[in-house]
Amino acid sequence: MKLRSIVTLAAGAAVATVATLAVPASAQTPSAVDTAATQDASTQYIVKFKAGADRGALLKSVGARLGISLTDQRELAVGGHVVTADRRTAGLLAALQASGQVEYAEPDTQMYALSTPNDPSYPQQWHYFEPTAGMNLPGAWDLATGTGVVVAVLDTGKTSHPDLDSHWLAGYDFISSSTTARDGNGRDANPQDQGDWYAAGECGSTTAANSSWHGTHVAGTIAALGNNSLGVAGVAYDAKILPVRVLGKCGGTSSDIADAIVWASGGTVSGVPANPNPAKVINLSLGGSGTCSTTYRNAISSANSRGTTVVVAAGNSNANASGFTPANCAGVVTVAALDRAGNRAFYSNFGATVEVSAPGGEVRLETDPPGTRSTPQDGILSTLNDGLTTPGNPSYTTYMGTSMAAPHVAGLVALMLSKKPTLTPAQVLSALQAHTRPIPGTCTGGCGTGLVDAAATVAAL
Predict the structure, then answer these.
(1) Catalytic annotation on 382?
(2) Given strand 44-49, what is the order of strands in its sheet?
(3) Which of 214, 217, 408, 435 is catalytic?
(4) I want to staple 69 with a disulfide (CB 3.0 to 4.6 A). Which of 86, 129, 280, 450 is the partner?
């Protein structure tokens, strides 16, 4: 089934053919984070004096011993006093504690607003920051932004977009069929998205469909430029994107995708030049029905052995992900999709195969049953192209799908590796699952360990 007015929905494809996993659709974060402060780097402290203590005499005595002037500024509602020093000095807190006249003494640490990009459409990216079902991303940006990490997007290819152009690396077109690729040849060094549109009666559909520009949307969620006063921000907005084209007209084949997985992670593929920019993260927002093939198992194992984490969309069939591949393969991070209220999205696959969940959005049209309708603003906003068939102009659009959930996690993995490059795929998965938070809504069938929490995960590293 398809909701083409919004985007390509994953179809029940044959085992050898896969489809994209997308169904094409606030406020600033209020909290803050503290910074490490020491007694040597501060001139303001909070001191709780014991009952009966002579505050003035104590501060004068300690100050004289350290060669500073201490002033009792005011009492807090919680009982401590704000004490200031006329200059920074070592040993002040220890001296106050040693006096025996204070219950505790600590730096009055400075707080800062969470890092928030200046991209004008960022407030519409609820999936990053809303407290209900957002991924708690702003706190992670204080610690990492993806610098130095390459994320491979195995998808429909790339299109020119001002929010992505400086982040595209030289990728590759792995589509063997010239008909599927629409570029007149087989594999080549040009990963340009030629459009995946088709006419009525093609690709197993009775209706025609426009091009989805699916790879551009996925890439924007991962690494659209941040703080460029334009459009949106990506999860890892300083990471680089390696575009690897594996999907064209009517999808793509497992054989092409398997080779692309190996190549993207730095492995050798016969007849294809070596990849100069091996990726430490691979995003697969694609899938089809069936068991995990030996071909996929070998390709994923090969990527894992080179230290590459493979993130996979769970699928959009509202079914157990165990029946869909590569979501059911070992060695991957399989991601289910949640709606804006934190429930499993109506389309999302589920089950024990799912490792974690992330925002995927949910858009219900006026043609949907009463009580289920929503707006495009409940989808995932990212980069796109406005061409109906061949590439047109850069644009921004909301989509929904597990295709949109997976790049949230791929971007988070890029943040993790930017903070700690030595993480193995197994350690990445362990950290992701250890720091998820409970699903805010409901998830019948199982959505992994919960909703990914970017700030908690990156901070734990």
Answers:
(1) no
(2) 70-75, 81-85, 44-49, 102-107
(3) 214
(4) 86
Give the per-residue pLDDT at 167.
98
- Is the model's pLDDT at 16 over the cut of 50? no
Superfamily of the domain at 37-109: Peptidase S8 propeptide/proteinase inhibitor I9 (3.30.70.80)
Alpha helices in 135-226 (DSSP H): 138-141, 178-181, 214-223
- What are the start and end residues of each CATH 3.30.70.80 domain in the chain? 37-109
Band (10; pLDDT cuts 50, 70, 90): very low
Reported as a pLDDT band with limits 50, 70 and 90, residue 39 is very low
Q: Which fold has domain 17-32+114-459?
A: Rossmann fold (3.40.50)
What pTM was estimated for this model as a whole?
Answer: 0.79
**Which pLDDT value is given to residue 7?**
34
> Among this protein's residues, is 285 annotated catalytic?
no
The amino acid that residue 447 corresponds to is C
How open is the CA angle 25-30-31, to the nearest 5 degrees? 125
Angle at 331 between CA 316 and CA 302, to 5 degrees: 120
pLDDT tens digits for 308-341?
999 999 999 999 999 999 999 999 999 999 999 9
Domain ranges in the chain with CATH number 3.40.50.200? 17-32+114-459
Per the annotation, the verdict on 408 as an active-site residue is: no
